[in-house]
Amino acid sequence: MKKLLLLFVLVLGAVVLVGCKRPPSNDGLHIVPPYDLPETADYNGSSVTIKFWHRMGAASQLLIQSYITEFNAIYPNIHVVEEKPAADYVALAEATSLAISAGDEPDIVESYPDHVAKYAEAKAPLPLNSFISNPNIGFSAEEIADFLPGLWAEGKTYDKAESIMSLPFSKSSEAFFYNKTYFDAHNYTVPETWEELFALAEIIKSSEAALGHNVMPFGYDSEDNLFITASAQKNINYTGFDENGKGRVLFNNEDSKNMMRYFKEKYNAGLMTTRSLNNDAYSSDLFKVQNLYMEVGSTGGTRYNIPTNRTFEVGVAPVPYFEGGLQKQIQQGPNISLFKKTGANAEQRMIAAWLFAKFLTSPEKTAKFATESGYIPVRQSAFQSATYLAWEAGIKENPTTDKEAQDRLVRDVFNVFLASQDRFFTSIVFNLGAKTRTEVGKLLAEILAYPGTGADLDKFINDTYRDHYNYIIS
């Protein structure tokens, strides 16, 4: 594990350069200068209440509640109210935007970079530079270096000044999960490319049909990620910057449409499906009951891939790529962002929120959150923390309970995550980024579901691309 961690740290240095794209200019984002926090600033012990908004599932929410109890023991007069105003990231971003408009935004929120860019239109986010550099309550140079470089770099992708708008929190990527028991029984090789995957899917579908089984071999949970990742793998324009550094929506092009035809062909052949095309059922749920034999899903949801009573063994590998294309897969998972405050106790509220953010991202806390949730630890030292090492030492290679099987799979996913860092990328950040991401996911689902063929399909693809593109830029 120590050798693997060293390799991880070295490779992540390259990820900072190739994975997180910083705009050459402000790109029109209304990033206000960092709050001028005095060097002597500190929490003065006065009673303040701060709100933390998230969209976590029940288990993670309980863990956060336990963190709040621990934090409150250190700072008795800082009262953290955690709230779940939405069940998914998009709805959380929408709820936060509405709260900003009403002047009732939370103090701290789970956020993707595109969401922060949207909040910046209202000049709401709090740049953290002066908090981070503060000698009393900030991070030392060693602590900054302790964050995984690619994850830390994502928080400063917004302007040329490298305003730090977020801290990494529950980070993840995607992984290819497969029914290892089924693969071993049939001597199937784990596919590395999309071409290998769909060739295997054809074999699985045909062989199962001969037994009277109508099966769906493969599922991809996120239409958004499939569109964006496949575009990156084929080096197809999705979004980008113009010569003035302004963000542009670029996916409406023939290369992208041909990519869509590729996946449409596989869908029509009954070789793949996606979440929205399965009545919004997670691919992991279908995978567990063997309605799928392979699926791509978030590493943050790793535990959900273990079937009850371990009816089969689960394997994990990197996301497939196109033969001759780039080996890319998306870096994802939310960060945590803070908001500017005004009025009475404004500075103390911001300091309190900052102290809670530091607490959430401390080595032991990120290690515990990772080992219980499946999200990657965001600090290098977390992998050598007492919490992580104790958890790793307890992994059973031959699990006898579902929990033991889940822990082993999470460990395997962490290892795949660490070994695959040179593949990770993040989309550029600009004010239409979140909207573009949502719309290309809808576009993909609509085209896959369209029943037409030939000229009718071509027209539908062209019209669908045009309509979603026009909606984004309108």
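the 2nd protein, sequnce then structure:
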Amino acid sequence: MTSARVSQRIGSIAESATLAVDAKAKALKAAGRPVIGFGAGEPDFPTPDYIVEAAVAAARQPRFHRYSPAGGLPELKEAIAAKTKRDSGYEAAASQVLVTNGGKQAVYNTFATLLDPGDEVLLPTPYWTTYPEAIRLAGGVPVEVFAGPEQGYLVTVDQLEAALTERTKILLFVSPSNPTGAVYSPEQTREIGQWAASKGLWVVTDEIYEHLTYDGMPFTSIATATPELGDKVVILNGVAKTYAMTGWRVGWMIGPADVIKAATNLQSHATSNVANISQMAALAAVSGPLDAVQEMKAAFDRRRRTMVKMLSEIDGVNCPTPQGAFYVYPDVRDVLGKEIAGVRPATSAELAALILDKAEVAIVPGEAFGPSGFVRLSYALGDDDLAEGVGRIQELLGTAK
């Protein structure tokens, strides 16, 4: 009997849908097609100068040309602990910080360290495309808990309770959310945190969009809002979104010292230290001012309003106004099945393919984040491209019969 060339574990992983859409858009653009991409969650701003200068200075220092501790430069770990206290109100020692190669490694390290085979993770849905894959890779079982636009894409304690089993070990909590832009209020956050604490669950909270909330909605860290969780909480974060540093690849996890030590052991074999130059850039970012993010946030807010207004003008598209991150997540179920440019898309994947083909606009279908019937568009791109791209979608879907 011939064995498969690729292991079952790795062969079962789906590629990142968001990166796949972005790569396809860039390839079509390189081939001369005027494609506008709403796929990647990536600020269109350059990394602030003072951060770049810190990296240049670090590159000239021979000590950064060598291996450094697998868990992160001590000065960066100290600065991350201080930044977390400043922004989240959460007290952590440097020994509770692990610096990772981007936020994705923090996600994987956390699940690999906490999960045994068969352990279940409550996964509020729509979810970021990487979460279920990282959970499965770690031997866990993602349990989807779906909240639709009717409830603002926010799960309730009753829904979580209904999904709870004796195998449940972790609740994943993400606010502001990718892909929906939904933000839990302080009261909702506390209620969910207290429920998780009462059930003895771990809470893994991804706070990478903490600085991007709108309309006066505050960011609330579930770790701070719910002291009852004790040491059964892990915070995931990074510099990518706040400081326009997606390509620098610096994230981190904060948790109990024993979990961080175990995750550091894992990372010492997987990748060892994050590139020192990137770590020094991240040090400048987290210990510097938040002026740059305020400028970006003002632009994102403007684009958010434009995109919601334009998408809401399309017959059959229901576009809730997001209160965080830089995505909209319209409900397109009423568009499916209608004839558009001679085609009747039955799923949001088919609709996204049609929009790319006919309107030359790249969006990510809901299948990447949970059920079909939705699409995600990032508004982290220039105002002109945004208006042009959504205008093309308006034009195409305006012909739906």
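The mean pLDDT is 95. Residues 8-46+292-397 form a domain with the Aspartate Aminotransferase, domain 1 fold (CATH 3.90.1150.10).
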